[in-house]
């Protein structure tokens, strides 16, 4: 809860802060990297270049201010859970919040100038620290659950096998170099992989574990990102595609905010492209447990060659008593024009949970069709392979249609 005086100030100044929040975050990041260059290794620099992380941070602060003022119309715990898991995957520590807070509040002053009186600075400082405390405590709980600290989050893993998983997709099997068993994961969990791109520069990326828990390796399936229209090739996926068996990368303990992989309710999964990875893990885990849960997997892809993990997923579905799958290609195997997923035409089980993973426009289409068919929005969850510019479709998301279309 905000102090009553600060709540009044935040309410009065929220419109001007919200109007300038994207500008503020654009000032904030360069300022923070200039003051703390070691953080260039912690933040995804492609997200900075294409502007997604500033938008995600801005959206979350606006959403939090609405939440504090009591006019948020969505589940903020889910937002905290998503950000906290991402932070833990990146080994963020409580002390880092002081650095971020100092630079963010300075950036607010830089952008808003004289409008930031000491009282206004104090009120927005309280918003920041209330958000920080919520995140720090959520992160502390996750670190405790996985029995790690920020210092022990990332450990060396050897690439013990590399397998083709479709056009421009490969599965990398990773094993801890100290010979220990990989930590347990829930299907849908992801790891951060941190690679040394130059002597003085490393970068993290997240990859969903594409295999079931309980195996001797952590398997990730990576799509190689090729730069288009003069943009560079993907830094980390290209680095991984250049690796060989025996090479070593740093890998975090698996984490994630997925809530649907266990339970009795039917689960309907929609994936597109490399978004198949969490679905593959869920299906493999179900098969390993002889699950009789009703599982329906709908996958969309460019064509059969691009369909990642096609054989693994098909074999798991065939082995499960209550699972079925359907696949839609834009280009059919016989070269004829295919189609797109048509949610209205699907026979959906009663009382199902829904899980989506693919591009944001794909997920927005599926979600709005499901809601149109009477599905409760609370039964639909999703994974975005980048910063969440969408926040579950909350009204406070600052992402424009143009920004969403780029994801
Ligand atoms: C929770 C989660 C799970 C994920 N799971 C998977 C998974 O299972 N499999 C998978 O393949 N991926 C997954 N991802 C995505 C993955 O983390 C990476 O984002 C992806 O591999 C691309 O990383 P990269 O380093 O290769 O590309 P990046 O270097 O990050 O580049 C990304 C894009 O930005 C563009 N870009 C970079 N720099 C610039 C610039 N200066 N100007 C203009 N454009 C630029 C590039 O051209 C490219 O199109 C997941 C992401 C998240 C958050
Ligand atoms: C109240 C303070 C903070 C807020 C509101 C916040 C908010 C966010 C949000 C919304 C995301 C995107 C999550 C997603 O959808 O994937 C994110 C990711 C991230 N945050 Fe924070 N954060 C805070 C503090 C910090 C701190 C202290 C650090 C460490 C220095 C940090 C480092 C990161 C990194 C590295 C990412 C991954 C995204 C990327 O690299 O582009 N954050 N944060």
TrEMBL record:
Provide any one GO MF term from the record: oxygen carrier activity
Q: Where is the FAD-binding FR-type domain?
A: 152-261
Q: What SUPFAM superfamilies does the database record attribute to this sequence?
A: Ferredoxin reductase-like, C-terminal NADP-linked domain, Globin-like, Riboflavin synthase domain-like
Oxidoreductase listed as a keyword: yes
Q: Which cofactor names does the annotation list?
A: heme b
Q: What class of enzyme is it?
A: oxidoreductase
- What domain of life does the native source organism fall in? Bacteria
Q: InterPro entries per the record?
A: Cbr1-like_FAD-bd_dom, FAD-bd_FR_type, Flavoprot_Pyr_Nucl_cyt_Rdtase, FNR_nucleotide-bd, Globin, Globin-like_sf, Globin/Proto, Riboflavin_synthase-like_b-brl
A Pfam family it matches: FAD_binding_6
Task: Name the EC number(s).
Answer: 1.14.12.17
Kindly state which keywords UniProt assigns to this record, in alphabetical order.
2Fe-2S, Dioxygenase, Heme, Iron, Iron-sulfur, Metal-binding, NAD, NADP, Oxidoreductase, Oxygen transport, Transport
Q: Which reaction does it catalyse?
A: 2 nitric oxide + NADPH + 2 O2 = 2 nitrate + NADP(+) + H(+); 2 nitric oxide + NADH + 2 O2 = 2 nitrate + NAD(+) + H(+)
Query: Which residue ranges does the record assign to the Globin domain?
Result: 1-140
Its Gene Ontology biological processes?
A: cellular response to nitrosative stress; nitric oxide catabolic process
Q: Which family does it belong to?
A: Belongs to the globin family.
Q: What is the protein name for this chain?
A: nitric oxide dioxygenase
């Amino acid at each position: 809860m905000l102090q009553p005086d600060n709540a009044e100030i935040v309410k009065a100044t929220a419109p001007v802060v919200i109007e300038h929040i994207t500008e503020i975050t654009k000032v904030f990041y360069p300022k923070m990297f200039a003051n703390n260059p070691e953080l260039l290794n912690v933040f995804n620099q492609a997200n900075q270049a294409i502007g997604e992380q500033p938008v995600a941070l801005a959206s979350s602060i606006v959403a939090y201010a609405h939440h504090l003022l009591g006019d948020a119309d969505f589940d903020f715990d889910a937002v905290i859970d998503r950000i906290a898991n991402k932070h833990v995957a990146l080994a963020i520590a409580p002390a880092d919040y002081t650095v971020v807070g100092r630079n963010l509040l300075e950036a607010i002053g830089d952008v808003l100038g004289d409008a930031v009186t000491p009282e206004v600075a104090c009120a927005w400082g309280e918003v920041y620290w209330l958000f920080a405390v919520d995140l720090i405590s959520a992160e502390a709980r996750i670190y405790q659950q996985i029995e790690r600290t920020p210092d022990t989050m990332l450990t060396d893993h050897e690439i013990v096998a590399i397998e083709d998983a479709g056009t421009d997709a490969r599965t990398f099997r990773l094993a801890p170099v100290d010979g220990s068993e990989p930590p347990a994961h829930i299907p849908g969990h992801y790891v951060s992989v941190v690679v040394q791109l130059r002597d003085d520069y490393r970068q993290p990326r997240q990859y969903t574990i594409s295999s079931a828990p309980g195996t001797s390796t952590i398997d990730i399936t990576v799509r190689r990102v090729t730069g288009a229209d003069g943009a560079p090739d993907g830094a980390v996926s290209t680095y991984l595609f250049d690796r060989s068996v025996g090479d070593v990368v740093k890998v975090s303990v698996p984490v994630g905010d997925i809530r649907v992989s266990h339970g009795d309710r039917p689960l309907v999964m929609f994936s597109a492209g490399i978004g198949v990875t969490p679905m593959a893990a869920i299906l493999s885990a179900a098969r390993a447990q002889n699950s009789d849960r009703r599982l329906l997997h709908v996958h969309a892809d460019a064509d059969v060659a691009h369909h990642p993990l096609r054989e693994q997923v098909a074999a798991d579905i065939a082995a499960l008593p209550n699972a079925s799958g359907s696949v839609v290609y834009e280009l059919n195997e016989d070269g004829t024009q295919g189609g797109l997923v048509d949610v209205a035409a699907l026979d959906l089980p009663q009382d199902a949970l829904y899980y989506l993973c693919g591009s944001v426009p794909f997920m927005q289409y599926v979600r709005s069709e499901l809601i149109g068919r009477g599905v409760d929005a609370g039964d639909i969850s999703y994974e975005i392979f980048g910063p969440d510019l969408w926040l579950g479709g909350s009204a406070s998301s600052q992402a424009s249609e143009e920004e969403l279309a780029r994801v």
